[in-house]
Write a structure and sequence with these properties.
The chain is α/β, with parallel strands linked by helices and 276 residues long. The protein is built from nine helices and 14 strands. It is globular, with a radius of gyration of 17 Å. The protein binds (5S)-5-amino-3-OXO-hexanoic acid (KMH) and zinc ion.
């Protein structure tokens, strides 16, 4: 089977040190978490940055400082800044990290409730705009889909020429307001994308490892990390992102999936090639 690309979502914008003290805020903490995840086998670091007090920010200056230090420790790792940011941020704020010299970023492909009164807004025009900017800046988008309707929208926008090949989907399942991450959901989504497209799963909370195992067994790729799940097992907090990545590496052994290096991940996804 193809090699397994592991992405580590080291911090996110919502989870806090109160939830798990290993959630990184400072530049030093963020670099440490990224490097440890890389050492364990993560080819891609999905990156959000925070101010030192934990407040999420999309400041390109902050991103640049973090990226420079991560790259100094592991130059080959793929850094994937978030363009989702945090709920309530403006389009331009969210797009700030795309002004940097980056090769990949997330592209959120639909609106959804995000718990309580929160709505994570990604209108059709937002998606077209984000896709256009990423294309112009030669940034490979990871297509974040939180439910089936988001995939349908991506496929429509692909047909109309707003979203380009090669398409790499991320099924983010288990958000309070999005689709659950049961096996039937996984199969429904996997069968809804073109056979030549690649996909990764990001299971939120208790869905993280069951979905990871399903994706591994069906040739997909996996995202784990404190952004998505703070526990290494039921009721036991993960002592950092590295532990979560190591658990995926162990699962991969069971299915004889080797772990992709960052350069192998670039090849599998088609990053850096000429995009149609
Ligand atoms: N923090 C969420 C509102 C992404 O990184 O692209 C959005 C998010 C998705 O985390
Ligand atoms: Zn994110």
């Amino acid at each position: 089977m193809n090699k397994l690309i592991i992405t580590c979502a080291i911090s996110g914008a919502e989870v806090t040190k109160k939830d798990n003290p290993f959630v990184p805020y400072t530049i030093e903490e963020t670099v440490r978490e990224a490097y440890e995840a890389y050492l364990a086998g993560a080819a891609i670091i999905h990156l959000h940055v925070r101010h030192d007090d934990g407040t999420p920010t999309q400041s390109k200056t902050r991103y640049q400082a973090v990226i420079d230090q991560i790259k100094a420790k592991c130059p080959d790792v793929i850094i994937q800044p978030s363009t989702g940011g945090a709920v309530g941020m403006t389009r331009d704020e969210r797009l700030e990290p795309t002004e940097l010299d980056i090769e990949m970023a997330t592209l959120d492909c639909g609106t959804l409730n995000f718990g309580g009164d929160q709505i994570f807004v990604n209108t059709e025009n937002d998606i077209k705009y984000f896709a256009k900017i990423m294309k112009e800046r030669n940034i490979f988008p990871e297509l974040e889909c939180f439910e089936k309707g988001h995939i349908d929208l991506v496929l429509r926008l692909n047909k109309k020429g707003f979203i380009h090949e090669p398409m790499h989907f991320s099924f983010v399942l288990g958000v309070n307001g999005g689709m659950t991450g049961e096996a039937r959901d996984f199969h429904f989504l996997r069968e809804s994308i073109p056979s030549h497209a690649t996909f990764s799963v990001a299971g939120i909370g208790r869905y993280e490892f069951p979905l990871a195992e399903l994706a591994i067994s069906y040739g997909g790729h996996v995202r784990v990390g404190l952004e998505d799940n703070i526990y290494i097992e039921k009721g036991v907090l993960a002592e950092g992102n590295q532990a979560l990545v190591k658990k995926v590496v162990e699962l991969a052994k069971k299915y004889n999936r080797e772990i992709a290096t960052p350069d192998e991940a670039r090849q599998i996804l088609g990053i850096g090639g000429s995009h149609e």
